[in-house]
């Protein structure tokens, strides 16, 4: 049995060329970045490169903000993949699963359908959210049969369930299929944590034995990582 820690951060919402300093703030070997770094790709590159200095692995899923300056989801996704592939030990979780010492990490955007963020035409069709729920459901299902995987972390930029807005949810989310429906495939109860972004306040709550965690920046001062520890 060993303990493996992850630092959770999200929603940096950095302006172009804005510097984010993480010197001396890492508390774990690994970092989970749940989206919304910046709409400026150079700033995304600089920020992930900076975080890469302090961790053995940085696992990242983009949020809606990263797509605001593009008119095509596919082309922007390819640009973000190219950025992360250029950085050692940085992994963008896009339709793939990362595995570390018996822990699997699955990441999706989730396409939160908040009206204030609809700045790109056709960016958030319901089909995009449904596609990611379908992928997540299948990925979780496959991991149930993977003998080497003992625990699973799900990470989404979007809030997985409207209840996790804690009474502050936007009206538009009531018409969405909740991402959390993908947990129907977690038949062996391997999902232990769900890390998410977009919600403007920190959250740490357990529902049906799954720890739902958010740690948004939104220019809080001071801002520290939220550490989660898994024993495997």
What would you note in describing this structure?
The chain has 232 residues and is α/β, with parallel strands linked by helices. It has one domain (3-231): Purple Acid Phosphatase, chain A, domain 2 (4-Layer Sandwich), CATH 3.60.21.10. The protein is 19% helix and 24% strand. The protein has helices at 41-52, 73-85, 126-144, and strands at 3-9, 30-33, 57-60, 90-92, 97-100, 103-108, 151-156, 191-196, 203-207, 210-214, 226-231. The strands form two sheets. The protein has a six-stranded mixed sheet, with helices on one face. Helix 2 (73-85) links the parallel strand 3 and strand 4 (90-92). Helix 1 runs parallel beside helix 2. The protein is globular. The termini are close together. Mean pLDDT is 91; it is low at 115-121.
In short:
The chain is 19% helix and 24% strand.
Structural class: alpha/beta
- Overall 3D geometry? globular
H/E order of the elements?
A: EEHEHEEEHEEEEE
Question: What is the CATH homologous superfamily assignment?
Answer: Metallo-dependent phosphatases
The CATH architecture category equals: 4-Layer Sandwich
Domain count? 1
Count of alpha and pi helical runs: 3
What kind of oligomer do you see? Answer: single chain
With strands numbered from the N-terminus, the spatial order across the biggest sheet is 5-6-7-8-10-9
Q: How big is the Rg?
A: 16 Å
Helix fraction by DSSP (H/I, runs of at least 4): 10-25%
């Amino acid at each position: 049995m060993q303990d493996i820690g992850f630092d959770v951060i999200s929603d940096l919402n950095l302006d172009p060329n804005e510097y984010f300093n993480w010197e001396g703030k890492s508390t774990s070997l690994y970092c989970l970045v749940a989206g919304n770094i910046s709409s400026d790709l150079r700033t995304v590159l600089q920020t992930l490169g900076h975080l890469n200095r302090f961790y053995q692995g940085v696992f990242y899923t983009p949020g809606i903000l990263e797509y605001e300056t593009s008119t095509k989801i596919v082309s922007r996704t390819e640009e973000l993949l190219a950025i992360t592939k250029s950085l050692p030990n940085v992994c963008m979780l896009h339709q793939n699963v990362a595995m570390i010492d018996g822990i699997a990490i699955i990441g999706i955007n989730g396409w939160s359908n908040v009206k204030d963020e609809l700045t790109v035409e056709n960016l958030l069709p319901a089909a995009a959210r449904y596609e990611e729920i379908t992928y997540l459901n299948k990925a979780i299902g496959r991991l149930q049969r993977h003998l080497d995987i003992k625990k699973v972390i799900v990470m989404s930029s979007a809030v997985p369930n409207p209840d996790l807005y804690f009474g502050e949810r936007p009206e538009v989310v009531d018409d969405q299929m909740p991402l959390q429906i993908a947990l129907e495939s977690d038949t062996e109860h391997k999902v232990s944590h769900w890390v998410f972004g977009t919600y403007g306040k920190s959250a740490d709550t357990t529902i049906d034995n799954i720890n739902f965690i958010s740690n948004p920046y939104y220019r809080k001062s001071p801002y520290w990582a939220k550490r989660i520890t898994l024993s495997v």
